[in-house]
Design goal:
By secondary structure, the chain is α+β, with helices and mostly antiparallel strands. It is built from two helices and three strands.
């Protein structure tokens, strides 16, 4: 269930401080954050925020469509590679030429 409208969006104070500094200085350097739980605000549109996924920081350029979503939604934490049985099924069967 989403956060109550009465309470407003949640953004960590340290992230909000970094966003305000980036807006005032007009620096396009990515803002590093570990706060996946913070919501994107209209003030963040146009900024690049590097969201930590548990291993590395994923750069996310915030657009208007992202406002109201959490930052963690844009930095996936799991990487699906494929099922091992799919490789065996897709590989062509080798034929014996000696018989």
């Amino acid at each position: 269930m989403p956060r109550s409208l009465r309470k407003g969006p949640f953004v960590d104070a340290h992230l909000l401080k970094k966003v305000e500094q980036a807006i005032s200085s007009r620096v396009k350097k990515p803002i590093k954050t570990w706060s996946r739980r913070s919501m994107t605000l209209p003030d963040m549109v146009g900024l690049t925020i590097a969201v930590h996924n548990g291993k590395q920081h994923i750069p996310v350029l915030v657009t208007e469509n992202m406002v109201g979503h959490k930052l963690g939604e844009f930095a996936p934490t799991r990487m699906f590679r494929s099922h091992s049985s799919d490789k065996a099924a897709k590989a062509p069967a080798k034929k014996d030429k000696d018989k």
